[in-house]
Automatic annotation (TrEMBL):
Keywords, comma-separated and alphabetical: Membrane, Transmembrane, Transmembrane helix
InterPro entries: Acid_resist_chaperone_HdeD (IPR052712), DUF308_memb (IPR005325)
Protein name, as recorded: DUF308 domain-containing protein
Stored Pfam families: DUF308
Source species, domain of life: Bacteria
Taxonomic source organism: Gordonia caeni
Keyword Glycosyltransferase listed: no
Chain segments annotated as transmembrane: 21-39, 45-64, 76-96, 102-122, 134-155, 161-181
Length: 188
């Protein structure tokens, strides 16, 4: 086997920034998911607002990654750009009207998880130096499955049921994100 040097998908200075952002959103996702499952009636408005904020932040990181990454194909770069814009847009809708946007938010989150999962699955080769390839692919598969479950169960269910399911899936996806965090790059 030929030993090839792997080129990082992000400049070394950006990896730690992306890692910090992913860590923050994943921890926020776990906390929010648990709160939603424990107090579904009490947390509806606050959870909708926090979901909106989390989507905006995650969308901004996708946008940043689409511009800052090196060595990606035009198609992958555009996929990240479109996904980032969609996540920022959906987050803004949720922030404006968190109590009324639950069903729509559940659908958008499901679609976002599916697109993000496919991006992780097919873009895994770009992240080889950031996290183990197999872990990024497993995380992508879990994200796609969580998105499909969200789309199947969210349209006809009640708000508490959507919230509980969303909370559970958010915890799962956030834990996968925590496990697949990029390796910390020493700064010089």
């Amino acid at each position: 086997m030929i030993n090839q040097e792997v080129r990082p998908a992000l400049p070394p200075e950006a990896v730690n920034a992306v890692r910090s952002g992913m860590l923050f959103t994943a921890v926020l996702g776990v906390v929010l998911g648990v709160l939603i499952m424990v107090w579904p009636g009490v947390t509806a408005f606050v959870a909708g607002l926090l979901f909106g904020i989390a989507l905006v932040v995650a969308g901004l990181f996708r946008l940043f990654f689409s511009f800052a990454s090196v060595g990606l194909t035009f198609g992958l770069r555009m996929l990240m750009l479109v996904l980032g814009i969609l996540m920022v847009f959906c987050g803004a809708i949720a922030i404006i009207s968190p109590a009324d946007a639950w069903w729509m938010l559940a659908i958008f989150i499901g679609i976002g998880w599916i697109f993000g999962g496919f991006q992780d699955i097919f873009g895994a080769r770009a992240d080889v130096s950031i996290a183990p390839r197999w872990l990024v692919i497993v995380g992508g598969v879990i994200s796609v499955l969580a998105g499909i479950v969200m789309l199947i169960f969210s349209p006809g269910t009640t708000v508490p049921a959507i919230m509980w399911l969303l909370g559970l899936l958010l915890v799962v996806v956030s834990i996968v994100t925590l496990v697949s965090l990029p390796k910390k790059v020493p700064t010089s």
